[in-house]
Amino acid sequence: MRYSLLHFTIIICVSLAYHTAIAGDMDSYTPTAYVQADGGYSIYKSKLLQANDTSTTVGYGFGINAGTDRNVGMRLTREQSSFTFALNASTRKLTLQDLAFIWRFGPVYLGGVIASSNWTATAPPDADSDGLLDTGSDAEELCNFQTAGYGATLGGLIPIGRRSALTLDITSASGGTSSPLAYDPTLTNADTLNARTVSLGTRTEVAIGGTLALTKSLLDLTAGFKMRNYSVSLDSTAYAEQLSTTYIGLRTNFTF
């Protein structure tokens, strides 16, 4: 299902490049600079923590477009989320940041991404080694690490009216190098944490949304849905993780 969605969205992006009806002047959809913020309702499914739950996600960022017809751009996005799983009292906190450099070809764009993240999780131990977390035990720190990697982004838009548009963005980035953060030596499982090998697998994210012009040029409403899939490897065992978010936000545009 994940690969079918990815192939479908790639086909849409490629086909957009051949739509002469929307391949004209894109200036009104690519401001010189913008600042945005959004919040969303998120569902997280974790094989590592053996639980699913819901929470809120907050994101913010800014972007700059320059060059002929503003066809070269840069965007920085940062997202923070925190989940507490009612099933077994485990927790997961994630801060994710993407720095993208984008080249536009009419309504379609592609570019490179530098990705970084900070990942923390707590969970009850598996004291009896049956492969299941002991739901009756107190949660303890499971992993705490940061990563740096790189990847690519591809997307496009379908203009609606003078400034509103439907948008599609696909990002794939490697987990890259992972480095554990310093653990408190007073933790009961400090020795285990210090010896643990943790890494983040390739992240694939698909976002489908839109922008609605609220003013003539300054303010837009943004909304949409995005799904992110990646894996966390703990002591050479990989666990699939999935985050889906329905979001809404605001974007302030500056054109000069």
Strand content: over 45%
List the domain count as a whole number. 1
- Give a short account of the largest sheet: 10 strands, antiparallel, barrel
Question: Helix count, per DSSP?
Answer: 2
Helix content: under 10%
Number of strands: 12
Which ranges are low-confidence, i.e. pLDDT below 50, for 5 or more consecutive residues?
17-24
Oligomer: single chain
Please list the strands of the largest sheet in the order they lie side by side. Answer: 1-2-3-4-5-6-7-10-11-12
Order of helices and strands: HEEEEEEEEHEEEE
Q: What CATH first level would be assigned? A: Mainly Beta
| Average pLDDT over all residues | 84
| Radius of gyration from the alpha-carbon trace, in angstroms | 20 Å
Which structural class fits the helix and strand makeup? mainly beta
CATH fold-level label:
Porin
Shape label: elongated
Question: TL;DR?
Answer:
The chain is mainly beta.
Molecular structure report:
The chain has a single domain (2-23, 33-254), classed as Porin (Beta Barrel), CATH 2.40.160.20. 28% of the residues are buried. It is built from 2 helices and 12 strands. The chain is mainly β and 256 residues long. A hairpin with a 2-residue loop joins strand 4 and strand 5. The model is unreliable at 17-24 (pLDDT under 50). The longest helix has 15 residues, at 2-16. The N and C termini lie far apart (43 Å). The chain has a 10-stranded antiparallel β-barrel with strand order 1-2-3-4-5-6-7-10-11-12.
